[in-house]
Amino acid sequence: MDTGILRTAKSRQHTAPPARADALADIVLPDSEGDDVRLGDLWSERPAALVWLRHYG
Q1: pLDDT tens sequence across 20-56
Q2: Phi/psi of residue 26, each to 5°?
Q3: How far from chain centre, in Å, is Cα 4?
Q4: Which of these, 7, 20, 28, 30, could form a disulfide with 2 (CB 3.0-4.6 Å)?
């Protein structure tokens, strides 16, 4: 359904957030400086948005 300039979608897309984000809390990933960060620490004090880049670069 991609049309137009830059192949934008015609219809609005919907996301499906996990029903239980606490299942992700103990995952540890490197931050932008290479330090380990527990995902649960990111949203312990305020909401957080997690973004995964599928094809970096």
Answers
A1: 878 889 999 898 899 999 999 988 888 888 887 777 6
A2: -90, 5
A3: 27
A4: 7
